[in-house]
Amino acid sequence: MKKNLSTLFCLLTIVLSASAQKGYQQLPTSRAFYTLRSPDGKLQAQIFPQDTLLWSVTHEGDPVLHLSPLYMELEDGSRFGVGSRLKNALAGKTDQQIPSPFYKKESIEDRYNELVLNFREDFRVVFRAYNEGMAYRFVSTGHKDFVMKNEQAVFHFDRDYTAYVPYVKGKHTDIESQYFNSFENTYAHAPLSELHPERLMFTPVVVELEGGKKVCIAESDLENYPGMFLKSRKDTPTLCSDFANYPVATEQGGHNQLQQIVTARAPYIARCKAGAHFPWRVLIVSTEDRQLADNDMVYKLAAPSRLRDISWIRPGKVAWEWWNHWGLSGVDFEAGVNNETYMAYIDFASRHGIEYVILDEGWAVNLQADLFQVVPEIDLEKLIAYGREKKVDLILWAGYYAFERDMEEVCRHYSEMGIKGFKIDFMDRDDQPMVDFHYRAAETAARYRMLVDFHGSYKPTGMNRTYPNVINYEAVHGLEQMKWTDIHTDQVTYDVTMPFIRMVAGPVDYTQGAMRNATKHTFRGINDEPMSQGTRCRQLAQYVVFESPLNMLCDSPVHYEREAECTAFIAAIPTVWDETVAMHGEIGKYISMARRRGETWYVGSLTNWDARTLELDLSFLGEGDFAAELYTDGANAHRIASDYACQTIAIPSDRKLSVSLAQGGGSALKIYKR
To answer: Which of 96, 483, 517, 646 could cross-link 20 (Cys pair, CB 3.0–4.6 Å)?
Structure first.
């Protein structure tokens, strides 16, 4: 039956795409500018195909993007978008539904108006207007391969707005050090003119406009091209694109000899094929912050699925050992990278219906970058067989270079053994060859029916639509950052900022689920016995608020078994959804999300370090009589962060429910029909 459903999904995608093709209307080429409006008429772009291609964007008449240039510079000195001659202009529209398996909703409305400007210099620019944002991309229409020297995507604003930006982590300003990064950092919040002009920012970023409106800058369908960083212009309200140049020499090194360190770069950013489709540059516009927490533009702008059969793809939860440092106690063996430890994790996963166990770094011989050299303490065949008996599958951690050098054979060998996927780590770049690696890894793994979780990677740009076996991405300042003794991060504020910015790009491998919880004053970074900032209920709510199709249980089985009530809630929660509702929220302050799987709804709420009471509007439940398991911060959670209360309640007929959140707190609901 699953295979039939998978085939139906592929056929449905083809039929919907074909039925959505509308006839394009040819527009006069003599116009000084073209106007493109969203289907609801609220968003409007004006595009000027003059000597330099320019565009501006407004929302209900309010400025979003001031007149800004966009062009691409080729190695031969020619430019797409400068001195170009318009050949024709076409207008069209699309209205369709996109099936979206392994996502936060079962299907997505894809409704937009489109303007296509074809130029005589062998390129076109495609602009799309959605109700929730604007996007454009360049497309090569020539018949010869070429080299792209640089691209200029400029985001100029009419005044000095304040922005939320994630700088590349560290204080360095030399450019090569910044290109080599993990795409994980908290957010600076400052006026555009005060952003550091020599520090790179990675997308998405959010700029606060007038009247509570915001614009999120992102990119989608990044393939065979470097990812886009942003830089500020000193003393001006402008953000400009920046790209890592093409690497021409690398050497093995970095973390445990598992990385490729760039030692020389070419004076260009990409080698391009004739007919290349370049990434979408995306402007998402919101009138309420909650709209950013449930936006689909990156997903729907990405290339459709290239997999005909997706029946074997199995999202789920993972019992994970690295964060809790193989933290077993009360056993008669020394816990660590050995079969006894992993069998204990498999036993735990089996008891609670958890689909996977990951063998993180340590199962392969260190410093060899060779995934065929397994440490003697691990008998993989025995573990796989034991897991199969217990209905628990295994995923292997893999350092980037170890996977890259033997990709085909590694996938073939371990798929035949029964391994179900790889968590690939420490890429830490997004230049063109590294982006290409991600696509090759996804395609190769798919041929062997294996999942991929990209850790140490750039942010998602829709590849989870193109290759649905790419089941998760890191590129998030996740809970792993709480292990280090020198940590000074305000993770609680990050947790209510990231869903409105980073999560716009796609799923997050945040790795929540801590059972040791701390207040602002009691938190410490301890590698062997790590804890989270904020309350226990905050950890439960994160399984609802954060989108994560492959979701970790980061803590020790010992702690979960002691916390049976919380563990039962986590173990039961789905990781992909039929429907998502962003209920309310404010960047950096609080958020509430509701998600449905089948007939069961989950609601999660988070706050910053301010205690607050939230009124939840549950009118999306519709008709019927509903009850819920409600998890709330305990009366003493402001002092003892693990304190919580659980009760079964009836959902009021007016669908209004108030929940109180402690400092750094949260609440979680599981709602079902009675």
So the answer is: 96
